[in-house]
From TrEMBL:
Region (Disordered): 312-331
Domain N-acetyltransferase: 141-307
Keywords noted in UniProt: Transferase
Molecular function per GO: acyltransferase activity, transferring groups other than amino-acyl groups
InterPro entries, sorted: Acyl_CoA_acyltransferase, GNAT_dom
Keyword rRNA processing in record: no
Record's protein name: Gcn5-related N-acetyltransferase domain protein
Coiled coil: none
Organism of derivation: Halorhabdus tiamatea SARL4B
C-alpha cells in the first residue's frame, strides 16, 4: 500500500449536494486494473483507471485582479472503495502522493469538459492544458481575472447593498459563490460551509461581489449563551472595490452585536491569509501559533483575532438589523 504525504481532508465535502444525480461503480480483476465508472445526471460518463494520468489545477496566490495557478501532472496509483460508498484514490505527483476522493476527480472532469480555465479554481482534467506539454510535471501561470469576467465593477463600497441570506436555497447560493461563482473567479481555501448562524452577501447590480459567514463556536456553552460567534468564511470577487472586506466585517460585527453576542472571533492564516482586514475593523490579535496543525493534518500559521462587543447598547431598542428588511407594522 502506498503512503500519502499531504494530509488533505479528502472525504470532507457535502457529498449529498456535490454528487447528487451521480452514480459510481469501482471494479476490476486486481488492484492494478481497478476502474471507476461515473455516470452523471445528463448521461455523462467518466472512466478513471489505475495508471491514468490526470492534471490538477489549483490556486497558489492572488493579487488585485490576478490569480496564479499551478498545474501538476499526476498518475493514479491506487483506487479503493471505502466506507459508505466513498472511493479513495492515491495520485502520484512524483514528489508526493495525494489522497483524494476519486468521485471528486471524476465530477470535476465532467464539469470542466468544454469550459475555460475560469470555470473552477481547483479542477481536474484528463489532458494537459494547451500551455503545458505532456511531459511537464508542473507549470505556474498568471491569469487576468478581470479580462475574463462579465461581472460589473463597482466604484466603491457605497455602491454595494448588504443582504442577509436566509431561506430555501440560501446555503447553496453562498457555497456556489465561495467555490467559484458563475465565472469561477472566486476561491476560498476552505470551500463551502455545512451550517451557519448567519450569512451575508454584498451585491452590485444584482451580482454577488462578496460574502461573509458567521458560525457558532465549537464550545457548546459559549454558543448557547451567545458569548461568542465566529467568522468562518469571508470571500470577495476580483471586481471588489477597495476596503470591501473591512466593510463586510464591520456590517457583520454590527449584526452580531445587535443580536446579543458578547464577542466576535476570526481565525486567519490558512492559504497565507494573514488577516490584515481584521485590525482595520477594531479586532485585536489574541493568539498566534506559527506551526498550528489542524484536524486534517494541515500546518499553517494560525492567528486568532477577537473583538469584544457591547450588546447591552441595543437592549430594549428597536434598531434594524444590518442586512435585514425592517419589520413594517400594519396601519
Amino acid at each position: 500500500m502506498l503512503s500519502y504525504t499531504d494530509g488533505r481532508d479528502y472525504l470532507g465535502h457535502d457529498t449529498v449536494e456535490r454528487f447528487e444525480g451521480w452514480g459510481f461503480r469501482l471494479g476490476g480483476p486486481s488492484p492494478s486494473t481497478q476502474t471507476l465508472v461515473a455516470v452523471g445526471p445528463d448521461d455523462q460518463i467518466v472512466r478513471l483507471s489505475v495508471g491514468n494520468y490526470v492534471w490538477h489545477t489549483r490556486d497558489r496566490t492572488s493579487k488585485a485582479g490576478m490569480r496564479q495557478l499551478e498545474t501538476r501532472r499526476g498518475r493514479i496509483a491506487e483506487m479503493e472503495e471505502c466506507r459508505d460508498g466513498e472511493h479513495l484514490a492515491l495520485v502520484d505527483f512524483g514528489e508526493d502522493l495525494a489522497r483524494m476522493d476519486v468521485r471528486e476527480i471524476a465530477v470535476s472532469i465532467a464539469i470542466g469538459e468544454g469550459n475555460s480555465e475560469m470555470v473552477a479554481t481547483t479542477e481536474w482534467a484528463l489532458e494537459a492544458p494547451e500551455t503545458m506539454d505532456f511531459d511537464d510535471r508542473r507549470q505556474m501561470r498568471w491569469i487576468d481575472l478581470l479580462e475574463e469576467t462579465d461581472i460589473p465593477e463597482p466604484d466603491g463600497v457605497d455602491d454595494l447593498t448588504f443582504e442577509r441570506m436566509s431561506g430555501r436555497g440560501s446555503r447553496k447560493t453562498v457555497n456556489a459563490f465561495l467555490e467559484g461563482y458563475e465565472d469561477g473567479a472566486v476561491d476560498h481555501a476552505c470551500g463551502g460551509v455545512h451550517h451557519w448562524k448567519a450569512a451575508f452577501v454584498a451585491r452590485y447590480e444584482g451580482h454577488i461581489i462578496g460574502a461573509i459567514v458567521l458560525a457558532p463556536p465549537q464550545n457548546g456553552v459559549l454558543a448557547a449563551e451567545r458569548e461568542e460567534i465566529v467568522i468562518s468564511r469571508i470571500a470577495s470577487h476580483p471586481v471588489r472595490p477597495a476596503n470591501m472586506s473591512s466593510w463586510l466585517i464591520s456590517k457583520a460585527r454590527d449584526w452580531a452585536e445587535r443580536a446579543g453576542y458578547g464577542r466576535i472571533v476570526a481565525l486567519a492564516g490558512v492559504d497565507g491569509n494573514r488577516g490584515h482586514c481584521y485590525p482595520a475593523t477594531g479586532f485585536e490579535l489574541e493568539e498566534k501559533v506559527s506551526q498550528y496543525v489542524d484536524g486534517n493534518g494541515n500546518v499553517w500559521p494560525k492567528r486568532r483575532y477577537v473583538d469584544d462587543l457591547d450588546p447591552e447598547t441595543y437592549a430594549d431598542r428597536d434598531v434594524p438589523m444590518p442586512g435585514e428588511e425592517p419589520e413594517v407594522c400594519p396601519a
